[in-house]
Amino acid sequence: MAATAAAVLAAGCSGTDGGGASDPAPSGAEGGYYLSLGDSLAVGVQPDEDGSPRETEEGYTDVLYRTLLEEDPDLEHERMGCAGEDTSTFLEGGLPRCEERYDDGEQLQAAEDFLADHEGEVDLVTLTIGANNFTRCVQGVNAADGRADSSEDIDIDAGCVADGLERLEEEVPEIAERLRTAAGPDTRIVAMTYYNPFLAFLLLDDDPAGQAAASAEEAEEAFPEQDARGGLAEEAVEILTEVNGTLTEAYEAEGIDVADVDSVFQATNQEVPEDSETGMPANLQNVCDLTWMCDAERGPDIHPNEEGAREIASVFAEEVR
Fold this sequence. Notes:
The chain has helices spanning 6-10, 60-69, 87-92, 96-99, 107-117, 158-183, 216-222, 227-253, 262-265, 282-290, 306-320; strands at residues 33-38, 46-47, 53-54, 76-79, 122-128, 138-139, 155-156, 188-192, 257-259. The chain is an alpha/beta fold and 321 residues long.
């Protein structure tokens, strides 16, 4: 039963195609290059005022880049991610809105080409991939943007989840190996673990609109009554550990450092802090504070808000240091 909840924890990083890839940085920049790869988290997807997902310049890679500029003002950022990429499309293409960004239609091949063309000039590579393996496994969540669909209950396709996990186990090691080979032994590569935005479904009230609690006060009232969703959330926490373990093992085998983003969100911490004003456990409170999942106007949306992007960037920055 626990395995079927994988999609709930990781249906997370799909998004809109909103805008093209950045223009290539000029070759031979004195400060070298920072190459960012991955899915919607890598390109800063956030909901706009109407709740529609769009790319922004406030993603964790953008925040990290601004931090790196403080020490290396000549550093260039090659922003190569694409919203919606999973491990299969990252390797082989097949997602139209992403294929058009790359000469050969594949993000990994584009990354390999960039690293070959700028051999010895790339100082850092970051990678965020894997969550979209499970996006289409969730019924009741819009696969295009990660928003809750009020017309149906949340449900899981177990076969889809099994396939997503199998692809994760098979394809992430290949991605890690090819990326390390292309970058060479001296280029720093940092990949990340994922958080569990769907803990916030604990706060969905029972009205037909199916919207998240609009305030901390409403959240406090709603949380104790969500026993059924609580069981699903616990299963999701277990699977998040499995998914992040698979990612970490594959990356570390190739000498790729891992930014433990989940440490910020504390997915397994179900204790209620003594000074809590909402009565919510720490993991649920962090999801509400750092993503759009509990925002009644723009959400629920799985992507990090600006504060969440800063927190994720800080985890990467610590790894880089």
